[in-house]
Design brief:
Chain lengths: ~290, ~300
């Protein structure tokens, strides 16, 4: 039973070549698509560093001549475009909002997975029912309610409606289900309270799902345009996505500024994405599938 | 079985049941924080929205006038409403179809990992990380007649004339759809990859031994087994794209005329530009009904197809 080493290496080499050929073939198929995905993003970066006077050049000047930061300077010194403030607003709204969503969803998801209480199935079916209703119906009443509560143009106008979202509960419930009950039962024997069991035993076991929900919720809040556009109208209170509309509209039809703004809004999330790509892709798949 | 979380094994008499319920009361504290906001900002607004649609609701008034179904009657004869509903449907159908085809195609290619496949997967999802506002800023310049990226390739590589993509009522919606596909196909792609990886590999090996070509394998193994995933993708895509707002709002302004105005954009303008909240509510209710009916139809259609 001796396979000559030359034979083995031939097999290995053949396998390697087959793999290489497959890779090359698939790259040939996917390269055009990859270019279609990348070119508009690179174009945005390029235009952010192009002089306003050169914005309309055609054929397109892919590499700016000269490379300039004048668009950024113009945005930063314009008191009508408080982009640092918008950035801060976005950051506060997204991070605190995400913390609220993750905490409330995990609490509620835990209860629906592990605890018994009268009316549980009815309360859960109400959550399911709300999934059926498109957001369009709730926009106007929620807006009028926030107006009556004098909460328009505050962070609360975004945080608390976001706290009502239900998708995170389904995700968390599913994951709390999957942990063995024995661990909790042992803790109950030891006389631990329910909240302590949830916090010290169950939550650490579903950390992966919580990270997934965190990413999903953060990106959603950071990028959202529609709801902030409705409830935030004071210029210093805007978030970045709404601010970008202001830069484009009205007296600000300065194309370079719009691209510089888009650059400022996108680079942090793209960098974040590049660093944590594996976690983010896994998180988006996990959280996105929760509604199933 | 001493835990409050588990139902009592032999509930004997009222006293025992009361005891259990009393023990279970603290459990409400777990759902209370979420349920409070859920009730205030989701549940109540659903019913309130239907109620407001029965009023001639104007934001400045103190006492709103009840007008019954008059808003709905006006809506039924509102030509713009039917036009924007048609636009939305057209946009949704084109976007969902292209998205599903591209996502499934890419997922099939990326399923088995090859040199650089992880990189491509990350790259293809990247546009989805961007805000829709950024998409809008890019989209305006991609489709621009004079200096747009697409017309750049049309004129320099194909030697064609400059085409007014967004100015043509027949092309503007497909253009917005393609922009949206660029932005969103990464998510269904990830879902399809996960779905495809759940199909047992021996099935493919058996097909290979039986001499089935890739097309037949796809038709008879992949497609039937991916149907549940497909249902999920189509329904979520349908719900997302029926509510399209920012793409027409930023890129085409709903024009030319009303050619690319979407239902949600019309709703937004009716409420926050013209402050006709009652009428806008009736728009939202009809849009919701249309969406619920189509979702139910989609579910039953797909379920029938899974059951053979």
């Amino acid at each position: 039973m001796t396979i000559s080493s030359s034979n083995a290496s031939t097999i290995q080499r053949r396998r390697f070549l087959r793999g290489l050929r497959r890779s090359l073939l698939l790259w040939l198929v996917f390269l055009p698509l990859a270019l279609i995905v990348v070119v508009p993003i690179l174009y945005m970066f390029s235009m952010a560093f192009t002089l306003e006077a050169n914005q309309l050049k055609f054929p397109i000047e892919w590499i700016p001549q000269p490379v300039t930061v004048s668009n950024f300077i113009k945005i930063f010194i314009d008191p009508q475009l408080p982009i640092v403030r918008w950035f801060t607003n976005s950051l506060i709204i997204a991070s605190a909002g995400t913390a609220i969503i993750v905490f409330l969803s995990s609490l509620s998801g835990y209860a629906f997975a592990r605890l018994e209480f009268p009316g549980k199935s009815f309360l859960f079916s109400l959550l399911l029912f709300s999934l059926m209703i498109p957001a369009a119906v709730t926009l106007i009443p929620a807006f009028l309610l926030l107006r009556d509560l004098k909460l328009l143009n505050t962070y609360h106008a975004i945080w608390w409606p976001a706290a009502a979202s239900v998708t995170g509960i389904f995700l968390m419930r599913q994951h709390f289900y999957s942990i063995p009950t024995e661990l909790e039962e042992a803790a109950i024997m030891d006389g631990a309270g329910r909240f302590r069991i949830y916090w010290q035993i169950s939550v650490p076991l579903v950390r992966g799902a919580m990270v997934a929900l965190f990413i999903f919720a953060f990106l959603g809040l950071w990028n959202d345009l529609f709801w902030p556009l409705i409830v935030l109208s004071d210029r210093p209170m805007l978030t970045l996505p709404v601010g970008l509309l202001v830069i484009q509209q009205g007296s600000y039809i300065q194309r370079g500024l719009a691209f510089a703004g888009a650059f400022i809004a996108s680079v942090p999330v793209l960098l974040f994405y590049a660093f944590f790509q594996r976690k983010i892709i896994a998180g988006i798949t996990t959280a996105g599938l929760a509604g199933r | 079985m001493t835990t409050a979380s588990l139902p009592a094994k032999h509930p004997t008499g009222n006293q025992n049941r009361w005891k259990t319920v009393r023990k279970q009361l603290p459990n409400y504290l777990f759902i209370l924080p979420h349920y409070f906001f859920f009730a205030v900002f989701l549940l109540y607004p659903i019913f309130r929205g239907v109620q407001i649609s029965l009023f001639d609701w104007k934001i400045m008034l103190k006492d709103q006038k009840f007008i019954g179904v008059a808003n709905y009657q006006a809506l039924m004869s509102d030509k713009i409403f039917w036009e924007v509903l048609g636009n939305t449907g057209q946009f949704m159908v084109i976007t969902v179809i292209i998205n599903v085809i591209i996502a499934l195609f890419v997922a099939t290619g990326l399923k088995h990992g090859f040199f650089g496949s992880d990189f491509l997967r990350v790259l293809f999802y990247a546009p989805g990380i961007l805000s829709v506002s950024v998409l809008g800023i890019i989209g305006i310049r991609v489709w621009d007649t004079q200096i747009g990226i697409i017309n750049y390739f049309v004129t320099t590589m194909l030697g064609g004339p400059r085409i007014s993509w967004l100015g043509n009522p027949d092309i503007v919606i497909p253009a917005l759809s393609i922009t949206t596909v660029w932005w969103t196909f990464g998510f269904p792609m990830l879902v399809f990859i996960a779905g495809l990886q759940n199909i047992p590999e021996p099935l493919y090996e058996a097909a290979k031994i039986d001499g089935a070509n890739p097309l037949r394998t796809f038709r008879h193994i992949t497609l039937p087994l991916i149907t549940p995933t497909m249902l999920f993708v189509v329904v979520t895509q349908f719900i997302a794209h029926m509510q399209v707002f920012a793409q027409p709002y930023i890129i085409s302004g709903g024009g030319p005329g009303n050619a690319s105005r979407s239902a949600t954009m019309y709703l937004y303008e009716t409420a926050w530009k013209f402050f006709r909240f009652g009428y806008a509510s009736s728009i939202s209710v009809v849009l919701a009904l249309v969406m619920i009916v189509v979702t139910v139809i989609l579910f039953s259609m797909m379920r029938q197809r899974t059951e053979y």
